[in-house]
Amino acid sequence: MGVSRDNAARREHALDAEQAVLGSFLIDPGVQQQLFARVRPEDFLSPANRKIYTTARALFRAGEPVDGVTVRDKLGQDYTGPLMELMEITPTSANWEVYAAIMRDQAAHQRLRDLAEQVLEQPNLESCRPYVADMGQVLSAGPETDSWTMRQMADDFFIGQDPDAPAPKYITYGLDVLDNGSYTELGDVVIIGGYPSDGKTALALSMAYHMAAEYKVGFFSLETDKRKIRDRLMAHIGQISLGDIKRRRLIDPDWVALAAKGPEMAKRDLTVVQAAGMTAPEIQSVAQAYGFQVILIDYIQLVTPETDRRAPRSEQVAEVSRSFHTFAQRTGTLVVELAQLTRPDKGTWRPPTMQDLKESGQLEQDADMIVLLYRPDPEDKTLDQNDNRSLKIGKNKEGRRGTWLLSFDGERQTFALLGADGKPRRRPSDRKRRKQDEGQPGQVDFWADGGEFKDTPWGQEASAK
């Protein structure tokens, strides 16, 4: 009984807010432009109020005046009384944004209640999934338009550039070339592309573990069993042999190394989710349920599409890509997508490009940064196919692009940037990293509209490709 009364009170509160919003644009043409851009028809619980709103918005978009008379002419004489009442009970339009927020919240709450009732009617867990996915969409939905005037932009810019203001915080990856050469933020989309078995999962896991020191991270595995993910992580964290882990041949120094990392592991907020068969909305719903700030998807072409299964594969992958791009921006979640690359013709080798992202050019379009990981040219006898990888930043909206050489220790699932002597470079101190970022030798400093460069061993001149 108490719950029913609460629901009735909430609905009455929402209807009062709806009337206040309608009255606001009827009495004050000055609020109409913003109001019609930000309030959605689905925010109205009352069909009658929704009809008044959609009629008025159609008039506004047609360039016609919107007031009690013009709206009544469209709706008919039966609406004369209700429209007059709306204008009489609304003393001011000053608080329309508050009323709109109340409407939006109550409409979303009602939609969740309706979906929950549908979930309760389902015969099994599988049939519940579409409704749970819809719940995630409702929870992540925001206002229709988020605008910023030039004056607001300028004010915010000058405040942010104040020397006494806190320094901006960008997300790091645990690899110098990415940490110093990119400005990744929550809400971005990053792609790590690679051929099968070239190490993109190992690279992504090392990034996930690094990010989990400061963020709540979810690793969605659509291909690899969670126990294999666990073993790879332990090899990386403890710097112990993956082969010894798989054969259960750990010795005392290995256990000591893992034990020493125990306090660190306890503080890393990383969750592995077995996600085989999940759709994009289902992954997004889980991400929101867990409160993940960063999600990594291994790999994007394995996400089950919601479109017609008979649709071209490129359309299916494009739909998945657009869904995660929208999700990242709407929720402020960093989305890191692993992606397969199309292999070159058998017997040939060439460095991959962004056009090799398998099955959809939409992936390239939606990404803020694209990293390509691949083995070196087999004809180059100075490099080892097993122990070396090239890391190419092919797209970077706000940072450097180029190609760097890495060492890869497969047994310990660890990557490191190679120095001029061909040995893995130690991570420099913050002071040294700052100097490098200001143009020290070996640092390629240019923006995303520049040409592509290869950063040759550190200390040598970088040459154009």
UniProtKB/TrEMBL annotation:
EC nos: 5.6.2.3
Q: Could you tell me the keywords of this UniProt record?
A: ATP-binding, DNA replication, DNA-binding, Helicase, Hydrolase, Isomerase, Nucleotide-binding
Q: Where is this region: Disordered?
A: 376-395, 418-465
TM ranges: none
Q: Which reaction does it catalyse?
A: ATP + H2O = ADP + phosphate + H(+)
SF4 helicase domain: which residues?
164-422
Q: Name one GO molecular function term.
A: hydrolase activity
User: Which Gene3D superfamilies does UniProt cross-reference here?
Assistant: DNAb Helicase, Chain A, P-loop containing nucleotide triphosphate hydrolases
Name the top EC class: isomerase
**Which segments show compositional bias classed as Basic residues?**
424-434
Tell me one GO biological process term.
DNA replication
Q: Would you identify the family this protein belongs to, as annotated? A: Belongs to the helicase family. DnaB subfamily.
Name of the protein in question: DNA 5'-3' helicase
